[in-house]
């Protein structure tokens, strides 16, 4: 479909495709029919952040209001936060929607299934500690990952608030389940917070993009200059693929079984993850249509 809006954010939840433009206009299209009618359109006066959790969209507005757009596309206001959040620092993990206050003193956690809001007070010095402005936050199962404007990464244990882990500098990072991959100075660091493991992979060349796949088993790295895509197994750090892909932009996304790359001619390049160590790879490959 061809659209005449400049998209700054999109999310797909079957059967809908939600798009947001730079003026905070939110549009929803049907992802199933090709007619491309707008099923929903709402102009938000304030900047917003949109997330999808199960069958609903959750919208955080910079005036501290949180709304929900359900599967019937009915927009309802859920609650008003008791703090300012003009920076829209927020993240989702499973059924939890987490929002950090602008003064970094409080986290609000909305449990979407129980429809329950709780506030966690945080010692300000914990998260601030010389690193200045926070750029974004991410949630792992029981950790809050904080990424600062100066590209420093820190992890805070929500189950044991006195534990704060320093992950060091990161030019970029990727999070999935309880795993984190970060890139800095030609090396890739991997962290598994469930087993408290960490590993390092020395890269052959510069990393332009990195991405953990959906189940956190593999990490993918692209290098645009040499048109290379690398795939590593997180469990043992072994390289299991190195592919030459011409005309890639470097942007990469990976589900449990597939990797999607964008090419400079606006086409998508889809690859299947085939790990020789995993049983049934042959069978999986045989199910693919021939080219
Ligand atoms: C909480 O974290 C602190 C600091 O890392 C540690 O000393 C303490 O043993 C932890 N407590 C529990 C219950 O794990
Ligand atoms: C991290 O980055 C800062 C600059 O932002 C630099 O001064 C510092 O040396 C870096 N630390 C490491 C371990 O590379
Ligand atoms: C980058 O890595 C190299 C070799 O591993 C090391 O010598 C250098 O000090 C590192 N630079 C920074 C800024 O950490
Ligand atoms: C694709 O790459 C080739 C070789 O690097 C180049 O000649 C060509 O112009 C590229 N095509 C596009 C659409 O960028
Ligand atoms: C885009 O580029 C890729 C590889 O460079 C090529 O295989 C594909 O046919 C191109 N698609 C279009 C629509 O030009």
Order of helices and strands: EEEEEEEEEEEEHEEEEEEEEEEEEEEEH
Strand arrangement across the biggest beta sheet: 1-2-3-4
The poorly predicted ranges are none
* N/C terminus separation: 25 Å
Shape: globular
What quaternary form is this? Answer: single chain
Helix content: under 10%
Number of strands: 27
Major sheet characteristics: 4 strands, antiparallel
Strand content: over 45%
Note the main attributes of this structure.
291 residues, mainly beta, 4-stranded antiparallel β-sheet, 2 helices, 4% helix, binds 2-acetamido-2-deoxy-beta-D-glucopyranose
Concise account of the structure shown:
The chain has 291 residues and is mostly beta strands. It has helices spanning 124-128, 281-286; strands spanning 7-13, 16-21, 25-30, 38-43, 48-53, 56-61, 65-69, 75-80, 90-93, 96-100, 106-111, 116-121, 134-139, 143-148, 152-157, 164-169, 172-176, 179-184, 187-192, 197-202, 209-212, 218-223, 228-233, 239-244, 248-254, 258-263, 268-272. Strand 21 (209-212) and strand 22 form a beta hairpin.
